[in-house]
Write a structure and sequence with these properties.
alpha+beta; six-stranded mixed beta sheet; Cytidine Deaminase, domain 2; globular
């Protein structure tokens, strides 16, 4: 991983196996955004177990297209069961370290919508970092990892992972 910005470490480091699973998930779900959580051993930097989650955005959009104007091609939403598992893991020996999702045909950046969804009352909702995968019809263009910067009160890119 290369590091374009300096945000106070430590940062979780995604293992090659977990990254390969996330990339495969993004390819399977294309042309919709995928989403999931990466877990790792408590007290260690490794984020080594990527767990795909269901993107329920299409269901939300179908139920209320005014409130949820975007569908799964341009948005993601983890369901209650996945959020429960994420929250519960934070008290265990293998906590969630990264929430990941893909951007379809637009690049790996942390959008204003991503910023808003990752915060509650101007603070991070969960003590995790975020990884955004650049997925396109012809493959994966890599991924960016984003960490909370308390001084700027937003998530900043801290590194890039190359495509496969």
């Amino acid at each position: 991983m290369s590091a374009p910005r300096e945000v106070a470490p430590p940062h979780p480091v995604v293992t090659a196996g977990a990254l390969a699973e996330m990339y495969a998930h993004a390819r399977r779900d294309y042309p919709n955004e995928c989403c999931g959580v990466v877990f790792g051993p408590k007290g260690a930097p490794a984020a080594d177990r990527a767990v795909p989650c269901a993107n329920i955005q299409n269901e939300l959009h179908a139920e209320d297209p005014v409130k949820h104007a975007r569908d799964a091609r341009t948005a993601y939403n983890l369901g209650a069961a996945d959020l429960f598992k994420l929250d519960k893991s934070l008290r265990g020996e293998t906590p969630a370290k990264i929430v990941y999702h893909s951007h379809v045909d637009v690049g790996a950046y942390f959008s204003d919508t991503d910023q808003a969804a990752a915060q509650m009352d101007g603070e991070p909702t969960y003590p995790v970092e975020y990884l955004v995968i650049d997925v396109r019809k012809d493959g994966i263009g890599g991924a960016g990892q984003f960490a909370w910067d308390a001084a700027q009160r937003r998530y900043l890119e801290i590194g890039r992972y190359p495509g496969p």
